[in-house]
Amino acid sequence: MIGSLLPYFKALIVSLALTFASAHGASLPVPVRQALAAAGIPQSSAHVVVQDLASGRTSLSVNASASVNPASVMKLVTTFAALELLGPAYRWKTEVYLDGDDLVLRGFGDPKLDYESFWMLLRSLRGRGLRDIRGDVVLDRSWFGPVANGRVDDDVFRPYNVDPDALLVNFKSLRFVFVPENGGVRVFAEPSPPGLELLNALKLSEGGCPEGRAFRELIQASFQSTPPRAAFTGLYPVVCGVRDLNVALHHPEDYVAGMVRLLWSEMGGSWTGRVRNGVASPTAQLVYTHESASLSEVVRDINKFSNNVMARQLFLTLAAEMGGAPANPEHARQSVRQWLQLRKISAPELVIDNGSGLSRVERASAATIAALLQAAWRSRVMPEFAASLPVVAMDGTMRKRLLGERVAGHAHIKTGLLHDARSIAGYVLDRHGRRHAVVMIVNHPRAGQSQEALDALLTWVYEGAAVWGRATGRGRPTSGPPGAAPANP
């Protein structure tokens, strides 16, 4: 009798040992440990969960319950909640009223009222016979309440620092385009509103083309809002080719005024009034309602390109739709917490600030993000949610990562980056045909140097080590080609 039970007891002991090791003594895979060491980052600063989606089994859990800054991975919380609470087909609207001689634009938080959309809005008014705006253009921004300054740094002209606005037109931004030609550099702004002063003293040079802040420093970019002015007086490397730089230069009212004057005159209309904030009177006549792209399209832009402004707009939309206008961040936080409770996702450590991850105070654990990914995979909105994540080596913020590697095209991964936090979260389809939820968050002053470690984890999962080799980094060989089922599963 006892002999017949020995195999059962052995299997039970092995199972308990593996469970204990995963929960309490698991170590990072060798390639990940080596990459962290090369970057000067201790293993204690890495927070990792890998789970099989079919079985729910956790194959790797390291520092998983610690409350850390997830950076832009926080967008997964906001976008998944919005898809379920509002529905993928949800659309924002912008209403246009005639109120006596005034034209009233009433915003409802459209995150993508960009240049083309605003042009279409005004073009639709011209198509309805409106030519002369005799009074003022009134901006009704009352759908959102006042929002505290959400800048993550002192670079006030960067578009990611633009605050939410119920009537946010084109992210309140200008795109400066640099074109080397005829021995010099041509610079133009799109759009180019009246009153914008543009100073271009750039000189062509040799050398490499830097990215980000280094590029701005090289071309000596400087800006001011009143009056709006942009100056470029440094060097422009020939190898840069055509480049652009997005800048949030204007105050909100000034930006809308400039856009209306520019576009309305191009359409043959006339207007000599001013822009001011206000609301439509009870007798105002609704003449047009502009509809946005669908929520599924907006969520794709948010996650593929990690758009912070759109994420914050969506976060406040949750507040307005769930708690009523005027929206405020606390209503959004309450809505997300209630949704998590209904979803039975326990997240006691979760701290939500603005829902974008562009925050020094937001917190989450790798375990909570993994639970969210598991829930999303079983959700009715799974197709829209999964498709919104960047595809490794193909698009979005993962477009240039892991190029030429076997994992390329086999993972949908959201990224996050702040000066002391770097993260990934999403889904990996391994070479054995198994799909996994993968989360890794690094919080450390050198977190910016952890990309190789994050990529090493994705490769490790893809190669099947999460199924066969656990934290050793050793994968089980298969008898078929990549993507085939493993031998003797």
Brief characterization of the structure:
The chain has 489 residues and is α/β, with parallel strands linked by helices. It has helices at 2-25, 30-39, 75-86, 115-127, 212-218, 252-266, 295-305, 308-323, 329-342, 366-377, 382-387, 451-462; strands spanning 46-52, 58-62, 91-99, 102-107, 132-133, 137-140, 174-181, 184-190, 197-200, 203-205, 221-224, 229-232, 235-237, 243-247, 270-271, 275-277, 285-294, 411-418, 421-429, 435-443.
Main sheet?
5 strands, antiparallel
* Spatial order of strands in the largest sheet: 2-1-20-19-18
CATH class of the domain at 27-87 and 298-472: Alpha Beta
Note the overall shape: globular
Query: What is the CATH homologous superfamily assignment of the domain at 27-87 and 298-472?
Result: DD-peptidase/beta-lactamase superfamily
CATH topology (level 3) name of the domain at 27-87 and 298-472:
Beta-lactamase
Structural class: alpha/beta
Provide the β-strand percentage band.
15-25%
SS summary, helix count: 12
Q: Give the mean pLDDT.
A: 90
Helix content estimate: 25-40%
- In the CATH hierarchy, the architecture of the domain at 27-87 and 298-472 is 3-Layer(aba) Sandwich
Number of strands: 20
C-alpha-based Rg, rounded: 26 Å
Q: In terms of quaternary structure, what is this?
A: single chain
Q: Give the CA-CA distance, first to last residue.
A: 30 Å
**Parts with pLDDT < 50 across at least 5 consecutive residues:** 5-25, 469-489
